[in-house]
Amino acid sequence: MLNSPDKNNSSVEPMETIAWKDFEKVALRVGRVTRAEVFEEAKIPAYILHVDFGDEIGIKKSSARITDRYTPEELVGRLVVGVVNFPKKQIGPIMSECLITGFHDEHGRVALCIPDFDVPLGAKLC
Asked: Which residue in 110, 114, 84 sits closest to 97, CA to CA?
């Protein structure tokens, strides 16, 4: 088992190789933030995001610790990439239904993983 890298990935550790079939199991999809609000009850500052992943998947909620770089107003209408096939996870009073992806910078702030151009909601990462 590999050690977990620190949150800003400043250390280089060997990566485990996975099979293509393993990667295919992860449903990384494009969604559009339809609503973003401060997660008042969160122990660590976060937002509650409502993300529309298109007709097939629908709208899913997520808790996102992205308050250092984004305001709720900036997030609404933005495309994001989320994992939509993880089990739901209770985070305080909300049930998180997806994981919104991003990268930590050298200060631990998250920059969202986003497409450069408009793509259909629900499009799968390929």
From this structure: 84
The number of residues making up the chain comes to 126
Decide: residue 66, CB within 10 A, 0-12 exposed, 13-18 middle, 19+ buried: buried
Tens-digit pLDDT string for the chain (126 aa): 223 345 555 567 889 999 999 999 999 999 999 999 999 999 999 999 999 999 999 999 999 999 999 999 999 999 999 999 999 999 999 999 999 999 999 999 999 999 999 999 999 998
The two tokens of residue 31 are 């969604």
Fold of 24-112: OB fold (Dihydrolipoamide Acetyltransferase, E2P) (2.40.50)
Can you give the pTM of this predicted structure? 0.87
